[in-house]
Amino acid sequence: MNFISFCAQLTEEPREVFTGPSSTAIRCAALLPPVGNKAPTPIEINAYGKNSERFRSMSVNSQVYIHGAKLRHDLDTRTYSVHGGIIAVVNDQFPILNTVILSGRCIKNIDQLDQKAFKTTASGLMIANQTLSVSTGKQQADLFNFFAINKADDKLNQAELLVNFTRKGIGLTIQGRLVTDAWKDNNTKERKTNTKIQLVSMTLAPRQETQENTIQPQAVVSEGTEVKGLWGGKSADDIAEPWGVNTGTMPDLPAQFANSDNDTEPF
């Protein structure tokens, strides 16, 4: 799985680029708003098909929301880009969203003696770093660096879970957000950045069990008992119809949701 939904602000005019001999995309550089004390995250947006026409009409500083795109990471240039998804213009009241969901395999064991892989700080924070390999098809994959950070007394200790349960080759699905650290090099005085995925939650792949320990599904029904279908035998087609079948448009939100507030801060 490779899924990202986020808000961003365009830093240039969208432009048309060739992605193949007869295919094009509308491309633009953008910045994701900072998370906490982090820096804004640079990202490249690529739109295709019908979405590209809507994207083409946008301008510098436009605030956009992109839903259901795919995240890519160029390991050589250390840059991130998104491809596809649904693009919409948002206003100042729209909440800031930044959600990444990736499924893949861990590429290493976390060495607790390696300060770059695992460390605890004087303030009591625990930090663990891991890398996920996510298939892009044709026996190729992108590598995504991600980290977990928490206090030692947190109820859910994600960093400790990473250390104890992730190993090279194990399957893992993570939900996180793109964040960027920024600092000035003491020697060159140049501004440097490093973008990673901050872990929010994760799901490990099921363990491989031996055949004799595998629980086989069973359905035992007493003799003479009538088996009834779920939901009174109704199907999804009986309960609801696709948006726009009779109206030609999407339905309005119920009144109680039309002007709902969100705790997330706007741009």
| Biggest sheet record | 13 strands, mixed
Strands, total number: 13
- Element-by-element helix/strand order: EEEEHEEEEEEEHEEHH
* Global mean pLDDT: 83
What CATH architecture of the largest domain do you see?
Answer: Beta Barrel
| Uncertain regions spanning at least 5 consecutive residues | 238-267
Rg estimate, integer Å: 23 Å
Top-tier CATH class of the largest domain: Mainly Beta
| Estimated share of beta-strand residues | 35-45%
Helix content: under 10%
Q: What features would you highlight for this structure?
A:
disordered C terminus; OB fold (Dihydrolipoamide Acetyltransferase, E2P); mainly beta; 13-stranded mixed sheet; 43% strand; 4 helices
Describe the structure.
It is a single chain. The chain is mainly β and 267 residues long. It has two domains: 2-97, Beta Barrel (OB fold (Dihydrolipoamide Acetyltransferase, E2P)); 103-207, Beta Barrel (OB fold (Dihydrolipoamide Acetyltransferase, E2P)). Helix content is 9%, strand content 43%. The protein is built from four helices and 13 strands. It has helices spanning 49-56, 158-165, 236-239, 255-258; strands at residues 2-10, 15-18, 24-32, 41-47, 63-74, 79-83, 86-89, 98-106, 118-120, 125-137, 140-151, 171-184, 191-204. Strands 1, 2, 3, 4, 5, 6, 7, 8, 9, 10, 11, 12 and 13 form a 13-stranded mixed beta sheet that branches. The longest helix has 8 residues, at 49-56. The chain is globular, with a radius of gyration of 23 Å. The two termini are 28 Å apart. Residues 238-267 have low confidence and may be disordered.
